[in-house]
Amino acid sequence: MTPARPGATGPIRQHRSPVPEAASPDGLTTVHLVRHGEVFNPEKILYGRLPGFRLSEAGVRQAKITAEFLAGRDVAAVVASPLERAQQTAAPIAQALGIGVDVDPRLIESRNVFEGKPFEAGPALLRYPRMWRVLINPFRPSWGEPYTEIAGRMLAAVAEWRDAFPGREVVLVSHQLPVWTTRRALEGQKLWHRPDRRQCALASVTSAVYSADRLVRVDYAEPNGPSTNQAGSVGA
């Protein structure tokens, strides 16, 4: 019987055995959290979960470079958020590895009340009194999905995909805030933070390395180099 894939919401485009023949010789399992590439967003909208926001030409190039970075690794599955920009980023990675792309809704962008609006972070927000009421608690945060909820769904996805392919590697393509929140949770840091201090560049790779279910280390790579936060980085 073919086992169900973790987080799968539709037909599986390619099946890989959860007990692979080619496992890591050191027994380590790695889950790579990839942030999507740059989005075409000339009006600087905080796009959040809105449909229709796709990669820019630069973002497409970034996805290809990250695919080259991950090519040749023993990756058993490539999984993406249901949003277009994540799907586009995952496609060349999966193609380079010769496998399909699965979808896991837990990898989706965080909810945000500013979604669909032009967004200017920092003191400029004080010019909009109607928004003050949602800015009262930066530790939760009060303007969007709580950090604890983001961490909970992301960590559950990481654990399930890790356990499905012991001794191998899995690529999960998500978004800046979910990836960064997951990293802080894995490293035992407080989840609240300053958005301008996130270490999560466009098309970057944050890798959680496990021995069984014990976290050994977290690695970080920027195949495309560093990038400044795009407009909408509260939800990018």
UniProtKB/TrEMBL annotation:
Give me the ranges of the annotated region Disordered.
1-26
**What are its GO cellular component terms?**
cytoplasm
Among Gene3D superfamilies, the record links this protein to: Phosphoglycerate mutase-like (3.40.50.1240)
Q: Entry's InterPro entries?
A: His_Pase_superF_clade-1, His_PPase_superfam, PGM_Phosphatase
The cross-references to SMART domains, in alphabetical order and at most eight, read: PGAM (SM00855)
Annotated Gene Ontology MF terms? phosphatase activity
The UniProt entry, under PANTHER family, shows:
BROAD-SPECIFICITY PHOSPHATASE YOR283W-RELATED, PHOSPHOGLYCERATE MUTASE
**Under which name does UniProt file this protein?**
Phosphoglycerate mutase
**Which taxonomic lineage is given here?**
Bacteria, Bacillati, Actinomycetota, Actinomycetes, Frankiales
